[in-house]
Write a structure and sequence with these properties.
The protein is about 60% helix and about 5% strand. The chain has about 475 residues and is mostly helical. The structure holds arginine. Arginine binds near residues 119, 120 and 331.
């Protein structure tokens, strides 16, 4: 903190005696928010313009004063843009910094801007505008990631890979199908941000400190000017809730969970043990001691971002818990977690989109693994049901014995001699071998949403149309 001993401190005389300076400095230290709420500058100007225009239209302030305010706000906007705006700690937050600067620029008329307004509804407006924009930006970034996944899925709609449950080989799937699973997840994430936006899109401006205003304000007009659907209906609620931010953080947390899962898969896939995928130098780093290393740091960091994003949701939830109506200064602690969470989410989304575009599947490796682990056992059981009309439970049992036999002989299911299969179930014929290969397994799964390449291509086409 800069030395502020020379500045006048409110409350200095109250403390008196030996506490002369320090308590005042600490008061400022804990109270000041300009260091972070300066990120609301654009929204603050937007809100003030709408408010001033409405006040003039309603005859609450003179139109010359409103014009002076608008000119001053334009100047401030230019100062912010060219980096000359003086952000000053002694004016505590962005709202008072703007108002103080306005007074320097236009004089007395500046003092009329705050008529029928409080910092309580002002900050609620600013923050809603910020979170609304963040929702829109996030949807755009999620869409960009979906496009990257689609572009990678399309050429690999039929590229075999093992599908896992319990991280054990389960049934063969295609790489395109696997990537498209994430397209679905990120699509729902985008939907959550859209829902959040729709719910938050009401204007708290005009709630004033907490009880509304005795001036003849037009809240519909300011709501419309700021792109809100309508004014909020309860002034106490307007200045005291931050559920819109919690909802946005919840949506961000769920998106970050999805990102962490894909990141974890990339980390696994690039290990020599899996060897399913290669990442280029662009998204890997070396080790300072082990020359052979190629580490998937970007994927690991994306995997980790959920920590701070979910942490932000936890922080703000705990800040809000148990707060009596209406505004309390506790709520100034709402901004940093939100800014930090969205910065982290946006970086993670961009890095993931970059990695998805960068990664190249190792087809032979994945195809080989797709056939391993007796992954077509279900296909054998299904064949027994379809061809021999056996109950699935019985088919399951027979297949289990076939797997055991193949394991004992050290061969894949498809390489088990027919007589071995017939020793278990005499009705089995040689055309069973048609279903025991991963290609056949994958191609047979034609149910809607299944892994058959045709189905995968249909989903890719649907999403491409949707994201146009
Ligand atoms: N900087 C404050 C915040 O972010 C603005 C609202 C202050 N209101 C008040 N009555 N002190 O919450």
């Amino acid at each position: 903190m800069p030395d502020s001993a020379s500045r006048p401190h409110k409350g200095q005389s109250l403390w008196g005696g030996r506490f002369e300076q320090k308590p005042a400095e600490l008061m400022q230290a804990i109270n000041v928010s300009i260091g972070f709420d300066r990120r609301l500058a654009a929204q603050d100007l937007q809100g003030s313009r709408a408010h001033a225009a409405m006040l003039a239209k309603q005859g609450v302030i003179a139109s010359e004063d409103a014009e002076a305010i608008h000119r001053g706000l334009d100047r401030i906007e230019a100062e912010i843009a060219d980096g000359t705006f003086p952000y000053r700690e002694e004016f505590e937050d962005i709202h008072m910094n703007v108002e103080a600067r306005l007074a320097e620029l236009i004089g007395e008329a500046a003092g009329r801007l705050h008529t029928a307004r409080s910092r309580n509804d002002q900050v609620a407006v600013d923050f809603r505008l910020w979170v609304r924009q963040a929702c829109d930006d996030t949807v755009r970034r999620l869409t960009a990631l979906q496009r990257a996944l689609l572009a990678k899925a399309e050429p690999h709609a039929a590229t075999l890979m093992p599908g896992f449950t319990h991280l054990q080989p389960a049934q063969p799937v295609t790489f395109g199908h696997h990537l498209m699973a994430y397209v679905e997840m990120f699509g729902r994430d985008a939907g959550r941000f859209q829902d959040c936006r729709a719910r938050l899109n009401e204007s708290p401006l005009g709630a004033a400190a907490l009880a509304g205003s005795p001036f003849p304000i037009d809240r519909d007009a300011t709501a419309a000017a700021l792109g809100f659907e309508r004014p909020t209906a309860n002034s106490l609620d307007s200045v005291s809730d931050r559920d819109f931010a919690l909802e946005a953080l919840a949506a961000a947390s769920i998106a970050a969970v999805h990102l962490s899962r894909l990141a974890e898969e990339i980390v696994l896939w690039v290990t020599p043990q899996f060897g399913f995928v290669r990442l280029s130098d662009a998204f890997t780093t070396g080790s300072s001691i082990m020359p052979q290393k190629r580490n998937p740091d970007a994927a690991e960091l994306v995997r980790a971002k959920i920590g701070r994003i979910f942490g932000a949701l936890t922080s703000l939830t705990l800040v809000m818990k148990g707060l009596p109506l209406a505004y309390s200064k506790d709520m100034q602690e709402d901004k940093q977690p939100v800014f930090d969470a969205f910065d982290a989410l946006w970086l993670a989304l961009a890095a993931m989109a970059g990695m998805v575009a960068d990664l190249e599947p190792v087809r032979e490796r994945m195809a080989q693994a797709a056939g391993g682990g007796f992954s077509t056992a279900t296909d054998l059981a299904d064949w027994l049901v379809r061809r021999l009309n056996l109950p699935f439970r019985q088919a399951h049992h027979i297949t289990g014995r076939a797997v055991k036999r193949a394991e004992d002989l050290g061969v894949d299911l498809g390489d088990l001699p027919l007589k071995e299969l017939q020793a278990i179930e005499p009705q089995i014929t040689s055309d069973v071998f048609e279903v025991l290969w991963p290609e056949a397994s994958v191609t047979s799964r034609q149910s809607y949403g299944g892994t058959a390449p045709d189905q995968v291509r249909a989903q890719i086409a649907r999403w491409k149309e949707k994201l146009k």
